[in-house]
Amino acid sequence: MLFINKLQRLYQNIKMAKELTSRSENYSQWYNDLVVKAGLAENSAVRGSMVIKPYGYAIWEKMQRILDDKFKETGHENAYFPLFIPKSFFSKEASHVEGFAKECAVVTHYRLKSDGKGGVMVDPDAKLEEELIVRPTSETIIWDTYRKWVQSYRDLPLLINQWANVVRWEM
């Protein structure tokens, strides 16, 4: 019976491998296919975003716990930096941002209002003075914060870790 179970699992693995995009052909698609077929996550209603299922999230939590302990052993502390970053911060780092600028989500307004038909619309009176970028990477906001925290060599080293989501719409 054990041998039959092993054969069935082998067959399922071979079948799944044939259904996956070739890793050498399109690595990103192969990875997404693998995550979905393994039942770790599924696509959501928002293109390019996934729902991480409980088993997939349990794997993430275990990895994070192990890494967090390792970081703390070296004196690192966790911090969290804003999800929204002023566009002017990216202008200062134009060469750094150039590679993923087309993948950035931009927030232009801070409020919705009723459209009078049972739906909602962006409130044209709620336009932001400065557009905000939904964090594609955290360096620009972190460096601005470190500039305030570090006034002399005595403030170093900063041993900071951040666990955070980023948004890059690679569509």
Question: What is the global morphology?
Answer: extended
Largest sheet: 3 strands, antiparallel
**SS class:** alpha+beta
Measured as a percent range, the helix fraction is 40-55%
| Average pLDDT number | 90
The parts where pLDDT drops under 50 for at least 5 residues are none
Q: What fraction strand?
A: 15-25%
Q: State the end-to-end CA separation.
A: 47 Å
Protein name: Prolyl-tRNA synthetase, archaeal/eukaryal type
GO molecular function, one term: proline-tRNA ligase activity
Organism: hydrothermal vent metagenome
EC number: 6.1.1.15
Describe it for me?
Keywords: Aminoacyl-tRNA synthetase, Ligase. Its EC number is 6.1.1.15. 41% of the residues lie in helices and 19% in strands. With 171 residues, the protein is α+β, with helices and mostly antiparallel strands. It has a domain at 76-170. A 3-stranded antiparallel β-sheet has the order 4-8-5. The protein contains 6 helices and 9 strands; from the N terminus they run ααββαββααββββαβ. It has helices at residues 2-19, 27-37, 54-73, 87-92, 94-97, 139-149; strands at residues 41-43, 50-52, 77-78, 84-86, 105-109, 112-114, 120-122, 127-134, 160-161.
Notable features of this structure?
171 residues, alpha+beta, aminoacyl-trna synthetase, EC 6.1.1.15, aa-tRNA-synth_II
Task: Provide a compact summary of the structure.
By secondary structure, the chain is of the alpha+beta class. The protein has 6 helices and 9 strands; from the N terminus they run ααββαββααββββαβ.
